[in-house]
């Protein structure tokens, strides 16, 4: 059973960089053809895809967030990390990490429980 767990600060000041880590257990982040994703949900809004890091290490980001986003990984710890720079209160959201399965079709089969991040001074 794959499990994902987000960790990081719950409060970030405006203009700073938000940094969250997702620790994966029960499966390797280098296994073909899984894509390790970050998704967020602002209060009162729908889910917004941020980006992913693939099993190969390649990354792809939402065009609207690309200039401020970086996703990296530590394969020795089976973790991947989101960094979102120059945050504003509009970046306040519940942040989820999730696994995208592209073995046969695209679907998110495992999710973390989510972590609330508030951007405020």
Specify the number of helices.
Answer: 0
- Tell me the total number of β-strands: 11
Strand content: over 45%
Radius of gyration: 14 Å
Give me the secondary-structure category: mainly beta
Task: Tell me the helix content.
Answer: under 10%
How would you spell out the order of helices and strands? EEEEEEEEEEE
Main sheet specs: 7 strands, mixed
Short description:
The protein has 121 residues and is mainly beta. It has strands spanning 3-7, 11-12, 18-25, 34-41, 48-54, 59-61, 69-74, 79-84, 93-101, 107-111, 115-119. A hairpin with a 4-residue loop joins strand 7 (69-74) and strand 8 (79-84).
Describe the structure.
The protein has 121 residues and is an all-beta fold. It has no helices and eleven strands. The protein has strands at 3-7, 11-12, 18-25, 34-41, 48-54, 59-61, 69-74, 79-84, 93-101, 107-111, 115-119. Strands 2, 4, 5, 6, 9, 10 and 11 form a seven-stranded mixed beta sheet that branches. The protein has a four-stranded antiparallel beta sheet with strand order 1-3-8-7, with no helix packed on it. The radius of gyration is 14 Å and the shape is globular. The termini are far apart.
């Amino acid at each position: 059973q794959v499990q994902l767990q987000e960790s990081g600060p719950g409060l970030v000041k405006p203009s700073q960089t938000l940094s969250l880590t997702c620790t994966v257990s029960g499966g390797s982040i280098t296994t073909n053809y899984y894509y390790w994703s970050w998704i967020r949900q602002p209060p009162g809004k729908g889910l917004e895809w941020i980006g992913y890091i693939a099993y190969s290490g390649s990354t792809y980001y939402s065009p609207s967030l690309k200039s401020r986003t970086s996703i990296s990984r530590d394969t020795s710890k089976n973790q991947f990390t989101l960094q979102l720079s120059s945050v504003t209160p509009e970046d306040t959201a519940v942040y989820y990490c999730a696994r995208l399965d592209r073995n046969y079709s695209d679907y998110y089969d495992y999710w973390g429980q989510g972590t609330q991040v508030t951007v405020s001074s």
